[in-house]
Automatic annotation (TrEMBL), chains A, B:
Listed NCBIfam families: fum_ac_acetase (TIGR01266)
Metabolic or biological pathway, per its Swiss-Prot or TrEMBL entry: Amino-acid degradation; L-phenylalanine degradation; acetoacetate and fumarate from L-phenylalanine: step 6/6
Gene that this polypeptide is encoded by: fahA
Annotated source species: Nocardioides jiangsuensis
Keyword Amino-acid biosynthesis: no
Class of this enzyme: hydrolase
Limits of the Fumarylacetoacetase N-terminal domain: 44-136
Keyword terms of this UniProt record: Calcium, Hydrolase, Magnesium, Metal-binding, Phenylalanine catabolism, Tyrosine catabolism
Cofactor: Ca(2+); Mg(2+)
Keyword Ribonucleoprotein attached: no
The name this protein goes by in its record: fumarylacetoacetase
Stretches for region Disordered: 190-210
One Pfam family per UniProt: FAA_hydrolase_N
Enzyme nomenclature, EC number: 3.7.1.2
Amino acid sequence: MRPFLDRVCVRVGRVSTTAPTPAPGARPTTWVDGAAGSLFDLDNLPYGVFSLPDEDPRVGVRVGDFVLDLAPAAAGDMLEAAHLFEAGTLNPFLAAGPRTWADVRAWLVEILGSESERSLVEPALVPLAEVALHLPFEVADYVDFYCSLDHASNVGRIFRPDAEPLLPNWRHLPVGYHGRAGTVVVSGTEVRRPRGQRKAPDADTPTYGPSTRLDIEAELGFVVGRPSALGEQVPTGAFAEHVFGVVGLNDWSARDVQAWEYVPLGPFLGKSFATSVSAWVTPLAALEHARVDLPGQDPEPLEYLRVGDRAGYDIAVEVELNGEVVATPPYSSMYWSPAQMLAHMTVNGASLRTGDLFASGTISGPERGQRGSLLELSWGGREPFTVAGAERTFLEDGDEVVLRYTAPGAYGRIGLGEVRGTVLPAAR
Amino acid sequence: MRPFLDRVCVRVGRVSTTAPTPAPGARPTTWVDGAAGSLFDLDNLPYGVFSLPDEDPRVGVRVGDFVLDLAPAAAGDMLEAAHLFEAGTLNPFLAAGPRTWADVRAWLVEILGSESERSLVEPALVPLAEVALHLPFEVADYVDFYCSLDHASNVGRIFRPDAEPLLPNWRHLPVGYHGRAGTVVVSGTEVRRPRGQRKAPDADTPTYGPSTRLDIEAELGFVVGRPSALGEQVPTGAFAEHVFGVVGLNDWSARDVQAWEYVPLGPFLGKSFATSVSAWVTPLAALEHARVDLPGQDPEPLEYLRVGDRAGYDIAVEVELNGEVVATPPYSSMYWSPAQMLAHMTVNGASLRTGDLFASGTISGPERGQRGSLLELSWGGREPFTVAGAERTFLEDGDEVVLRYTAPGAYGRIGLGEVRGTVLPAAR
């Protein structure tokens, strides 16, 4: 690793000296150059894992366009939690639980918001442009839900046009399944078009080859910090005791592979080749101002699934394909809340581990422009849409997809980090 | 930890001094008391993780009714791979790959089969009766397949009596799905009856409560050692390059929960509360004499799923309920081979990690007494069977299930270790 003082010298000239000292009682304003008023102000402070060239990954917090190198900053301030930042992953910090999460957040606001801390803290700030970002935590189990009423209804209408769009269980429980934790990758990782078996509706036998219906699913993921014991049920009210924060998530999907394989045991290879997550984990604490009521549930769910007011989140999502926004799904339209997903996932006594990741399923709103998958945007491939003047249905080699997430914060809007991926051609 | 010499003194009197020295060229005979001719002779040598009271878990090899404590034995012999046994889990050894696996096995046969090694090795032997056994490896991803033609046909006939029992994709690919890695537990762990949602066929709405159709599935699990890269396909011919060995596996299932939840995304809470595996991982090398041809596949599978002769395994399974053998499923009857499961699981470029576990699905043979689940043995609960004079369908609180596995070895039959579990009543 580059010596600490060496890195200080590289960076010290890049930080502004003009940030004001906050008046007593006023909300703190950060002295970090360009951060105040940005999507990554003091009301956000997401966590991630970064590395400088030829160095090991380190835990950091994003503020403006800088990363605070947490290990030296915490050790230098003799923070009690400093040892949690020594590994190149967030897992030890996630495992520490909500009191530690709150303590560290309060400390961050203090050191990044007080001009008097600046000279001590500034050496641990690294410009984002100089770092590589890594998968922020080691994923334990990955579960994917199916929580959007509009998405589930659209899928039903596309595949079963003559039947009731929603299946009988859908309004009674958040339908979900386990995905492949080992292929969760960080934003920016290229995604190779998968090969596999698929069968045309009019064919007698399947064929093998590259997927011809490669798709995205714009989702939100929830990251478990504090574990639970085998046999323990985690009630909806304990959501914030166990869940640390959220990531943006793209559940890449090979629709042709999925359609052939998924009866009766569910999606498998159509999903397991890659799931991309944002490099930043936004703590629930940063999303307090984004909490909203659910749109309403009818029928009322069974008691173990009941939640109070403000169980939803008002998070805006943008789906960008090759530089053009093709959809703006609203997370606030989701039928099932994350606390309900968590309670359902553990109602049978299944234990939680630090690093468990569970995702919402495709976020789709009621409007055509609010659909979070190309399957829905192109209505099963039958109604192409236009991107940069060309008709499009599913993903083509070379396509770049970026999912962007923002939400109301305490000061203004906060950014949840993006999920970016480019499609590589199938292996020869 | 208890000092090494202390443990020597505890154990040295329990080892026989009568084992013969092998004649040159003869197959080695172990000097370990009672091991020669047992199910755990030198042709077996499964690996596990054990602990002595108040000590940390350690890696060991079973021989007869003893465990060889691998770390001191390997270090004492200055074995190159000795450092792989320092952790309390098999994962570092699994990751080392087939050359190391073969080297260590040859070394074990030498030290346990040569009277001249006895005085050096004996201090590292621990009686099995003195140890606790632990989950032998850290499970990365867990995938469960559905490879028995008889099981899939039985399930089809039970649930869809008027339709074709096999679904259209079944003979074209090994159907599978991801399960919950975090709730894989070692044999002997008690299993609490899960609660959850289920809906009676004639009811309008679901109810919540303890599962009333708790079941077992007798399966065989395969443990991945050497990982593969994202985007890499692992062909059937590379099976033994990646898979280290096998475990017995009981895929506990709540049939009522599963029936209500599984459309369209597959089994979730009906399976995720517990999956039990044997404490011993039997290396593929010990199963060379158990290899047999598959029963035959029609139609011939797509090229990426083709295998040669002896792709199956002749492993006998006994399902014991409360001390009575209720079924003897033959693994040799399985339609899809483990090499095909592995090739299918990675055909889309999904990477393998050390500790990945994939299981066969319920093992059922063509005869009534060869069915590996109570669902089949009781034909959906409609045809009770008799255990200890009582009529039985699904599991009752207090039931103890033991799965036992044996196979032909080089010397005689080998034991794959048992999978034991007792049903606890649902939480209040």
